Amino acid sequence: MEILIFILILTVLVLIHEAGHFFVAKKLGIKVEEFGFGIPPRIFGIKRGETIYSVNWLPIGGFVKLYGEDSAGGGKVGKSQHPVKDIGRAFFARPAWQRALVIVAGVVMNFILATVIISYLFGVAGVPVAGDKVIVAGVSPSSPAEQAGLSEGDVVVSVNDVFIKSPTQLTDYTKQHLGEELRVAVEKENGETKELSLTPRKQYPAGQGPMGVSVATNIAIKKYPWYQAPVIGLAESLKTSWMIASSLGTTIFQLVTKAQVPQGVAGPVGIAQLTGQFVQVGPMAVLSLVSILSLNLAVLNILPIPALDGGRLFFILIEMVTRKKVSQKYEGYAHAAGMVLLLGLIALITFHDITRLISGVPLLPK
Hints:
The chain is of the alpha+beta class.
């Protein structure tokens, strides 16, 4: 089931991406020869108008085939293959700004998908946020906290009549009063409020702290009004995209120079494993994963890497600046080199994923 969910997520992300290329191309009057579900060879196809809508044997993702796309570097489409009257509708024959719009559309669709999901999570489902209660997560044996009667699950309300709203506030206040008797008001799990007395130690075992207690903030579910959720969702998408872009530079550098996969980086195998962990948490967690993967796909695709959308966009931008198309031959060489590099990196990451999977190490802590 987890594998099927992973395949479904991957398919949705790719189809949404390709749908962006498809709709913008149609809107601009560029001929779309095929919109395919899955990866060829083809099982069957239905022609509607000038476009074939196909279902292919490998049910992962999809693709859009544009008329004249292979001649993007300025080549010509032979008369024997296409009627002369359609040359004006070929992708390569359209103005640079139109080709740029078609290419960017896939990235935009992935970004929109992520923003919609995040907005839904913020506005309808709600998102977990840190609350304003400080909860006792653990008590060390023979510590001042244990001797005073603090128990796991207690809520620290105040210390010396100072209301406590965060673990940091409690820690800072305690360190300012080492060796002094403190009056700690706590709320028990049954709702009863008690005032306890304890003296934080000046000397204490490593890892225990002056009170000998570990604390954490409670988790609350916060929902935003419908009119705020899209704004919050957009801001969160932009913030996450920037974080992804910032970390990609370091990741690529380590992969290329050290042949080392950084912690937290995963390929298809690792993402499938990660999907299993999110499925166990619940549907909202899976939606959150979909939004993160969609933003990753958007950011990665817009980078000026040959063989990706960003690489193709880069050559179009060169054309717009120089007023001259880049040689189809050289652009083809660049895309081929980019594809080899990408496949090599994917192979390295996949090997790392499989090694981690065999060793039983989860991608994220459970």
